[in-house]
UniProtKB/TrEMBL annotation, chains A, B:
Lineage, broadest ranks: Bacteria, Pseudomonadati, Bacteroidota, Flavobacteriia, Flavobacteriales
GO MF annotation terms: sugar transmembrane transporter activity
Membrane topology, from the record: Multi-pass membrane protein
Signal peptide bounds: none
GO terms for cellular component: membrane
UniProt source species: Aureitalea marina
Pfam family, one: PQ-loop
UniProtKB keywords: Membrane, Transmembrane, Transmembrane helix
Origin: domain of life: Bacteria
Major location category of this protein: membrane
Protein's recorded name: Glutathione synthetase
Amino acid sequence: MASGDVIEIIGLIAAALTTSGFVPQVYKTWRTRDVGGLSFWMYLALFSGTVLWLIYGIYTESRPIILANIVASTLTFIMLVFIFIGKFRR
Amino acid sequence: MASGDVIEIIGLIAAALTTSGFVPQVYKTWRTRDVGGLSFWMYLALFSGTVLWLIYGIYTESRPIILANIVASTLTFIMLVFIFIGKFRR
């Protein structure tokens, strides 16, 4: 059974990946303005979900979950704005 | 301070949103075959991250985290396949 530290590290790496993971998409959409293939509903669900995970993380006092979802909710919000602007600018 | 049940429900709703959130994107990409604006690197990071979250959830015995990341890793894997096929079929 993995020790507490190893579990915490797995959580922090998972948090980093599922958070930083949005950065390449934000960058690509910023660069290409191509929102055609992007699902507004996905980013709306991911934004609402990450806000709820943030609340869950605060109540369960879990640093990896809090850290991941502050950043992920911000990045998914940015994607919502890009998609919203992209849909109405055409 | 929210009770244990409320926290568990928040976690389950968050899990449902950040899991089912990928479904509209999988459906849209399946229907439109439009992968041009999608970031391969995002889905690679999200897939690896959700697999690590799954391991974290198993070690911390957290049902919401296990549930969310079994489905999310499957859906992000499907997106990776779509993007991979889309990039090489053009």
